[in-house]
Amino acid sequence: MQRRTGSVSHAVAVAKLGEAAEHASEFREHLAEIIGGPTFKGSPRSQEFLRYIVEHSLRGEFDNLRERTIGVALFGRPADYDTTEDAIVRVTASDVRKRLLQHYGAAGADSRCRIHLPSGSYVPEFQCTPPAPPDTFVEVPEATAVVPAKTKTSLAPWWRRGRLAIVALIVVAIGVTGWDLHDRILIRTLPPQNFISRVFGETPGPVQLVVADDALVLIQVLLGRRFTLLEYENLGHLALPELVAQKDLQHFWRILATRQITNLGDLQNVTRIADGLRWRGRKVNVRQARQVNAREFRTGDFVILGSSFSNPWADLFQVEDSNFAIPPVRPGLPAPILNRHPLAGEPSRFEVHPDPKTGKVVTYARVTLLPNTGRSGRVLLVAGLSMAATEMAGDFLLTADSVGRTLRNLGLPVDSPIPDLEMLLRVTEVNEIGDSVELVSCRRVRT
User: Measured between alpha carbons, how far is 162 from 186 in angstroms, rounded to an integer?
Assistant: First the structure.
């Protein structure tokens, strides 16, 4: 099981800090900009939380960045308080994550410095991108590129004639002669691969990240019915129903019909997925489900977030005789996941329920990897039985060990290509916030 605030996550987050303390003054100035901006306005608790974790991180006081310690120091809880019952630290951390995403999507979109709070940790991550000097930076995938500043003049004409020649020259020079590294250098290394980067990291063309249409969810709950993919594509779900006029909801309906609405869990997932793929040189487009049409799924790679209830494009990729099927239910009611071919020890259905030992809510998420409709790319579908379950499924797919755990579950060597598959994840929630995620089962899909 992967705990969001476990010791492993904490240690990894601490290790990522690197040279952030050397730029502490810049990050403190950036922190003041964030807290003084519109996104954190009106939430003193989130302001104090962000200020607390940033200051303690920059001072290297990492023992003060654990759930219980934060609860005692920041929220006045007694030293022996029950963190499983009192989720104030987790709730506040989730609110801070969402506000940071909103900040960098609006007022802070052009910020050179950035502060992130990864899921599973209370240790923030710091990024500060220096302006790259011309002709001195070369990125070599899966390796480290080192370019001395003193080669700038001689390499510039080569760069214009062909980048590959420069890369080859650099690799040979490093391997055979070495360079005097006293001059200023730029170094960039790629992060470890995860499930998503293994699936999409090497193929050409952009990856389309399609987030859920939460306006559709509200419409279906309001009307008490589900819309088909054909109705959605033809905008049939936006026709003004009699119920709206009867209940005088015309203004509310105009909002649902004209605005593209999604949830912050999807935004957090796509931000992290996009960052990882762009770091590896892939182009990424983030789109709302209402912006897409069926023809586009014939070519390219896609990530579809949400079930067919919130993202109808998932219906294009139904697995015949699916191992982990989600039956249609009345809007607003919880749906089970059916296990049509249970292995030894597996139940025949997975349903949302409270854990009798911990009191946490147990829910599930399904991950499916299939070809696109033209069989020219791949489509990854991530759908939880709750918003938190979908978010936590994204967490699992972005961890460094997600590839190994998946392939071992399928009985494949860890260096094998990832086949088309269906995956079931078990998620626990506290106050509707994801707490842990684990891989329950995985099946190959024949397409």
Answer: 20
Assess whether 292 and 368 both reside in one domain: yes
- Are 279 and 426 in the same domain? yes
367: which residues sit within 8 A by CB, 6+ positions away? Answer: 380, 381, 382, 383, 393, 397, 421, 422, 423, 424, 425
Assign 44 to helix, strand or coil.
helix
User: Does residue 49 sit within a domain?
Assistant: yes
Tell whether the torsion through CA atoms of 322, 426, 373 and 304 is positive or negative.
positive
Query: Distance between CA atoms of 114 and 328, rounded to whole angstroms?
Result: 42
Question: What are 245's two structure tokens?
Answer: 């006029």
For residues 44-53, one letter each, b for 16 or more C-beta atoms within 10 angstroms of the residue's C-beta and e for the rest, the string is eebbebbbbb
Which residue, 100, 128, 156, sits at the end of a domain? Answer: 128
Distance CA 209, CA 192 (A): 21
Number of structural domains the chain divides into: 3
pLDDT tens over the chain, length 447 residues: 444 434 444 444 444 455 566 678 888 999 999 999 988 988 889 999 999 999 988 888 877 888 999 999 999 999 888 888 888 998 899 889 888 988 887 777 778 888 888 877 888 888 876 554 444 344 434 433 333 343 333 334 333 334 444 333 333 333 433 333 333 334 445 567 899 999 997 677 899 999 999 999 999 988 888 999 999 988 888 888 888 877 788 888 888 888 888 887 888 888 888 888 888 888 899 999 998 999 999 999 999 999 999 999 999 998 888 999 888 777 767 789 999 999 988 999 999 999 998 889 999 999 999 999 999 999 999 999 988 899 999 999 999 899 999 999 999 998 899 999 999 999 999 888 888 999 999 999 987
Question: Under DSSP, is residue 223 helix (H, G, I), strand (E, B) or coil?
Answer: helix
Residues 6+ apart with CB under 8 A from 41: none
- Identify whether the C-beta of residue 306 lies closer than 8 Å to the C-beta of residue 314: yes
> Residue 226 domain-assigned?
no
Rounded CA separation 334/327 (Å): 10
Residues 102 and 156 in one domain: no
pTM: predicted TM-score of the whole model, two decimal places? 0.62
Give 37: exposed, middle or buried? Use CB within 10 Å, 0-12, 13-18, 19+: middle
State the maximum Cα–Cα separation within the chain, in Å, rounded to a whole number: 81
Residue 45 located in a structural domain? yes
**Residue 396 sits in which domain range?**
195-213+262-444
Rg value, the chain, Cα: 24
Contact 445, 130 (CB under 8 A): no
Give the integer Cα–Cα distance in Å for 253 and 245: 10
